[in-house]
Specification:
The complex is a heterodimer of chains A (322) and B (297). Chain A has 322 residues and is mainly α. Chain A contains twelve helices and no strands. The chains are: A mainly alpha (322), B mainly alpha (297). Chains A and B meet through α5, α10 and α12 of A and α4, α9 and α11 of B.
Chain lengths: 322, 297
């Protein structure tokens, strides 16, 4: 008997399949914005596991996204044509190829997550933030130097495989995995690490393992989001995955409320649609953005959509407020 | 050998600029224990303050150059104090993360205001000091701007050392850095000390901004990001919170970077600072001259 959350997941996937089948009738502009919303939901929710639930402030999420984007683009561009020739090219095989490319992107990004997570564990707070930022920059410089992946010019001519179905199925899976992980018995460890590392360790929680796990899961989904992004924009270059991109994702998490998945999803939707609405005042957009961030921290540091001390999981554990 | 020495000189003059910026990071970290992300943008504002004030003093002479330098330093000192007063002081009792995010917000605000007011296109930084190349024994060249960078840095470092070690406000700074609660118990006004620290650090960043623009000649509103991050790495390398450490880290990083830039790995120059950061945090997290703090429950 599937649980309620599994039913919700199934429903979301079916709904995105339905919208995807109807996509030829929808205005392409709305379709574009919708796809961007989906990608940002994946990014923000996966970062929320690291920054929000586990409390490890990471500023390198765009780096993981870059790894996923380049890996999956390489799979579809370099290995794809040969594989399709072998199996015969039809809708089913190309979709299967895309799925494989996304998973490959996620896996390699997760590996990068281990590489970043392991040394970063000795650090806390602002040190960790700056090291993850540094890792993100290193990843970018490395891609700039790989000529076979286009170097500084980037990779062009990525096949257009992204559609609403893949984007929102991936978003639904991300939300499902993050929420059910955090709500599981095992997942309480993330919250314990967030609340008080020393106390968590004293209770026998392996804080190192939890931190690495958070980084790996977060990086995996960032990689998948990168793959979807690449096959949506059809061109990627190292500049698109810089520090500003990471900050954009961080702002979504903060605005939604750290450790509040529903809030973060709402914030991702809001912050993707807002720039479209604000097009007439595009020059002031980034100024407003940064002012918003400062004012939010001064008056509502818990995020726009968080109303209790810890929105979701605390209901079951009788929260002892500090 | 000549090439080695030439690179060393180039490295030291780049490192001197990193050192000036790194001092601001380290001093603020010393008193408040947080990374002032906006510091790199104060550096950028310093360069623009120099750019605009040099219009009033068009010809290049030592006196005019020093005036431009002073104007930029004073402007940035005021800016630093204002930022602290408006954005950071209300958050003094909040979690470190909140302050860090606010600092990122202030940094973005300065960058975007800069793009809006100054324009996003790079501007050519005028010559404010007379330009001359000296040829040393063995064919090495030493440009006058390199000499100015080194002289200004040394003067700044010596006066900073004097302020911190010999004056009353410097003693108060060290006291706040050592233990803010105990410092306020013995009658030190921590708010004034923190404002002063921000002013001092921002003035040094402005000096760094002018010197940097003199050497690279192009300035734009996003110019602070990379030197700022590297200077932060320099501060960590030397041991964050430690003033001589920041100077040492800056010089060291400048030299390392110049040598990498001269080798066949030159395309990786921008990544090298971060690689250094990761290595230092893995093997000596307290930095070269810093002392490890033991966490107490």
């Amino acid at each position: 008997m599937p649980s309620r959350s599994q039913l919700v997941l199934l429903g979301a996937i079916l709904a995105s399949l339905g919208v995807s089948l109807l996509s030829s009738r929808i205005n392409p502009y709305y379709l574009d914005v919708t796809t961007s919303v989906g990608i940002n939901i994946i990014l923000a929710v996966s970062l929320n596991l690291i920054n929000g639930y586990t409390g490890q402030f990471s500023l390198g999420h765009a780096g993981f996204m870059a790894v996923g984007a380049y890996t999956s683009a390489a799979v579809t561009m370099f290995a794809g044509p040969r594989l399709l020739q072998m199996t015969g090219s039809n809708t089913f095989t190309t979709e299967l190829l895309f799925l494989a490319a996304l998973l490959a992107g996620g896996m390699i990004a997760a590996t990068a997550g281990v590489l970043v997570g392991a040394p970063s564990l000795r650090l806390k707070g602002d040190y960790l933030a700056i090291v993850t930022l540094g890792f993100g920059e290193i990843i970018r410089v490395v891609f700039r130097n790989i000529e076979s992946l286009g170097g500084a010019l980037g990779l062009n001519g990525i096949p257009s495989y992204t559609n609403v179905f893949w984007t929102f199925s991936a978003a639904a899976v991300t939300v499902y995995v993050v929420v059910s992980t955090v709500n599981s018995t095992y997942g309480r460890g993330f919250l314990a690490v967030h609340d008080d590392e020393v106390a968590a360790e004293a209770m026998g929680i392996n804080t190192t393992r939890y931190k690495i796990t958070a980084f790996v899961i977060g990086a995996f989904f960032a990689g998948v989001a990168g793959g979807i992004y690449g096959h949506f924009k059809l061109t990627i270059d190292p500049k698109g995955f810089d520090f500003m991109k990471s900050i954009e994702i961080v702002v979504m998490v903060i605005l939604g409320g750290m450790g509040n998945t529903v809030g973060v999803v709402l914030a991702a939707i809001l912050l993707t649609i807002l720039p479209e609405v604000l097009r007439p005042v595009a020059d002031y957009r980034m100024i407003l953005y940064s002012l918003l961030l400062i004012i939010l921290m001064l008056v509502r540091p818990q995020g726009l959509f968080t109303f209790t001390r810890r929105a979701m999981p605390s209901a079951k554990v009788g929260a002892h407020g500090k | 050998m000549t090439e080695f020495l030439q690179q060393l000189i180039n490295g030291l003059s780049l490192g001197a600029i990193y050192a000036l910026i790194a001092l601001g990071y380290t001093m603020v970290y010393g008193v408040l224990r947080f990374i002032n992300f906006a510091h790199s943008d104060v550096f950028m504002i310093g360069a623009f303050a120099g750019f605009y004030s040099s219009r009033a003093l068009p010809d290049a002479s030592v006196a005019h150059g020093l005036t431009v330098l002073c104007i930029a330093m004073i402007a940035c000192a005021i800016l630093g104090i204002v930022i602290e007063r408006l954005a950071y002081r209300p958050l003094r009792a909040r979690s470190k993360l909140t302050v860090l995010i606010t600092a990122i917000g202030v940094s973005l605000l300065l960058e975007n205001l800069g793009q809006f007011i100054f324009g996003a296109a790079p501007k050519r930084f005028p010559q404010i000091f007379p330009e001359k190349n000296l040829t040393l024994a063995g064919g090495m060249t030493l440009s006058s701007s390199q000499i100015i960078v080194l002289v200004v840095t040394i003067v700044c470092l010596v006066s900073l050392r004097f302020i911190v070690m010999k004056t009353k406000i410097g003693t108060a700074m060290r006291a706040v850095s050592f233990n803010p609660i105990a410092a306020s118990l013995v009658g030190i006004n921590t708010d004034i000390v923190i404002s002063f620290t921000f002013g001092l650090g921002s003035a040094l960043a402005a000096a760094g901004g002018i010197l940097y623009s003199m050497n690279y000649q192009a300035i734009d509103p996003l110019m602070g990001i990379l030197p700022g991050l590297k200077a932060f790495v320099a501060a960590v390398l030397g041991g964050i919170g430690n003033i001589p450490g920041a100077a040492l880290g800056g010089l060291l990083l400048g030299v390392i970077e110049t040598f990498v830039n001269g080798s066949r790995w030159s395309t990786y120059t921008d990544a090298i600072a971060f690689a250094v950061l990761i290595l230092i945090l893995l093997f000596k997290p307290a930095g070269l001259l810093g002392q490890l703090e033991v966490e107490k429950v």
